[in-house]
Amino acid sequence: MASSLRIEKVDRPVLAQHDSAILDLVFVMDCTGSMGPYIDSAKNNIHAIIQEIVANETSNIRLALIVYRDHPPQDTSFVTHVHDFTTQVNEMKSWLDNYRADGGGDTPEAVADALHDILHLSWRSDATKICVLISDAPPHGLHQENDSFPNGCPADHDPARLVRDIAEQHITLYVVGVEPPIVLYRDFFMALAYITGGQYVPMINAKLLAKVIIGGVREEISLDRLMQDALPDIDREMQRAKEDGIDDKIKAQRLNEIFSAKNLRSKRMKNPHGALSSAATDGYAKCPDMAEMRIQFRKQLETTPNTFAASTLTTLASDINYDLMEDVDVSEDQAARLVQKWQQRNRKTY
């Protein structure tokens, strides 16, 4: 039997506090024909997004932008365009102003190429690193239906491998999934985010994009601080969990015991429709590469028909608000994501 947790308790609930937050934030946007409202929302709200983050988190923020379409002959304009980090919000706004939704060709887009580009930005080593991917279509090689590159990205970029490299560099991926087009691929994208310790956020109203970015960023800053404050205890418990041979669910429960004992609390964006699915955590997230994810997708199509009805969209539209809850207990989903963060960041030695 494992030894009991040895944790120094504190007397009162606290939010992990640092003097300032150093934030590197990148937007990765599908720039094909159906994405116009989301591109416009980012353009119109970028100043408000940054102002609110700075006002609440005293953040030292840099911004970057990656936009993508597809490989020729499906799209002949560009595959990806990369704008590396800037401290100037007006420069970010000017980049966004250069793009409009157009083209795309077949159903999949150059998602894998955009993920590859994330790794080559000039990230700061001491920053909280967050990437917000806004998409309504899968990468090549997943579904294969209406896919001009059914075996995957023609540049040989593998999303399953890339997100693990992204996670290893302490970058957290949020996927804003434009529904209903992306519903069939929701669990796949949820797994990509989960591997990095991030979230999948379903969205059918582009007007809420700014709220999601603000809420997600503020939640991740709080979780990053929490991990730093509890890191010695987390390190010890994760090593003990490895010796005990327990699964990720029990690891998350043990981490929550640490946070409870130390009275560490966090912030949490309301995202009930993005709650972790077993298909994402126990299926896609266990796949080492895109070939295995493709097999998983085929199995899911055969065994779990898509039942996301129009009534669900109505519910999603009427009851979702993405409000940020302040000073709350760490949730089960957050603890599960923190397990993933720790494991991927230490995957070469764990």
Automatic annotation (TrEMBL):
UniProt keyword terms in alphabetical order: Secreted, Signal
Compartments, record wording: Secreted
GO MF annotations in UniProt: protein serine/threonine kinase activity
Annotated GO CC locations: cytoplasm
Superkingdom of the source species: Eukaryota
Record domain VWFA: where: 24-221
Entry-linked InterPro entries: HMCN1-like_VWA, Thr-specific_kinase-like, VWF_A, vWFA_dom_sf
Pfam family for this entry, one: VWA_4
Chain segments annotated as coiled-coil in the UniProt record: none
Annotated protein name in UniProt: VWFA domain-containing protein
Organism, as annotated: Adineta steineri
